[in-house]
Write a structure and sequence with these properties.
The chain has 368 residues and is an alpha/beta fold. The chain folds into 2 domains: 133 residues, Lyase, Ornithine Decarboxylase, Chain A, domain 1; 229 residues, Alpha-Beta Barrel (TIM Barrel), CATH 3.20.20. Helix content is 31%, strand content 23%. It has 14 helices and 17 strands. Helix 2 packs parallel to helix 3 and helix 11 packs parallel to helix 12. The longest helix is centred in the middle third of the chain and has 17 residues.
Length: 368
């Protein structure tokens, strides 16, 4: 299937190209939406993860809403957008004043803010028709897991107790966890939800929504479905609307990149360095590329392995697409000059970052 999709691009290759399978993206969007049909939890597409018109229009048809974080993302939304949920997570705080009245009248808007300075809270312009939530640091919810670094977004769950009056007077009606950690599990989300609900009951705070953020790309579809099933009873019992903000999980398995081998350098009998016209820094940043078209890259019965460093064309030492252990073919390196290599697992952030640099071309972008 992948070979059929990519063959025309390989045969007509001119420069690095990013290719996205809209059928696979549509399928994932439908999956995420359908598993929440009988739940108070909704999946909102993260615009920053793929700020392209084709993907946003597709999400508008399938998913119940969007997450945006700046004015450019807001302007990418369809002009006549209506009857959707908008989660607004703006680190600058400027979007609150930029949201047109008609947008919040035609849609359900949730705006999340850092609650650190009470004076700022007292002077904040809480606008009608918008639901305001306080950001919570995921660090304070998950605890001492070694991979968790202190989040620069949100307060600890304990510090939020100092601002209870803003929950009691209805100014703040929800909580948002800025989560996108690279080691999430089902248990992490369950712990975060349990800690929030425990906090609400202990402090006698009533809110209407909890947003558990992103990071779902680290779970399988089966795990995501199980997570929704396990969270749903608790959200129903506590009369809470729930949200997730998937981005990478929607696209990463539907994205591909093509690059040509420009040079091959041999460092020793077992070590080689390939330089492509495809750059990790310019074209596929934040992706985790997997080489697809070289057959067995790690066969256990190989009597000898060759180490192959695959790098991009920039002078940056860490412009690296991968380091592979490959089997020699007839005693030789199984790569040739000008060969087109195919990479999978390219997410939508690659299209967002895609750039030209110092004579290096921007990658082409294609949807199929």
């Amino acid at each position: 299937m992948v070979e059929t999709i990519l063959a025309p691009y390989i045969n007509n290759y001119q420069k690095p190209i990013l290719i996205y399978d809209l059928g696979q993206i549509s399928k994932k969007m439908n999956f995420l939406t359908n598993i929440c049909r009988d739940s108070p939890i909704k999946m909102l597409f993260t615009v920053k993860s793929f700020p392209c018109r084709e993907i946003i229009d597709l999400a508008y048809k399938i998913m119940p809403g969007f997450e945006i974080s700046n004015i450019n993302e807001y302007q990418l939304l369809p002009k006549d957008i209506h009857d959707v949920v908008l989660s607004i997570n703006d680190p600058t705080g400027q979007l609150n004043a930029s949201i047109p009245i008609e947008l919040s009248q035609k849609n359900t808007c949730y705006l999340h803010m850092d609650v650190i300075d009470e004076d700022k809270l007292l002077s904040f312009n809480f606008r009608p028709k918008i639901h305001y939530g306080a950001r919570v640091s995921h660090t304070s919810l998950i605890g001492s897991k070694s991979y968790v670094t202190e989040s620069r977004f949100g307060s600890s769950i304990i510090k939020l107790a100092k601002h209870k009056k803003f929950f009691f007077n209805g100014k703040l009606t929800g909580l948002h966890v800025h989560n996108g950690s690279e080691e999430n599990t089902i248990d992490d989300y369950l712990i975060m939800a349990d800690q929030i609900i425990y906090f609400l009951k202990k402090e006698n705070i009533k809110i209407s929504f909890v947003n558990l953020g992103g990071g779902l790309h680290l779970l399988t579809e089966k795990e995501i479905e199980e997570l929704i099933q396990r969270l749903t009873p608790s959200f129903i019992d506590n009369n809470l609307q729930g949200f997730f903000e998937p981005g990478q999980s929607v696209v990463r398995h539907a994205g591909y990149a093509l690059g040509k081998i420009l040079s091959i350098k041999q460092f020793s009998q077992e070590k080689y360095h390939l330089v492509l016209d495809l750059s990790n820094e310019c074209h596929i940043k934040w992706s985790d590329p997997v080489l697809l078209n070289k057959g067995k890259l790690d066969s256990l019965d190989s009597p000898q392995k060759l180490t192959v460093f695959i790098g991009g064309p920039t002078c940056f030492e860490h412009d690296c697409l991968g380091i592979l252990k490959v089997d020699p073919v007839d005693g030789k390196l199984p790569f040739k000059l000008n060969e087109i290599l195919t990479f999978g697992n390219i997410n939508g952030y690659a299209a967002a970052w895609n750039m030209a640099f110092n004579g290096i071309s921007k990658a082409s972008l294609a949807f199929c």
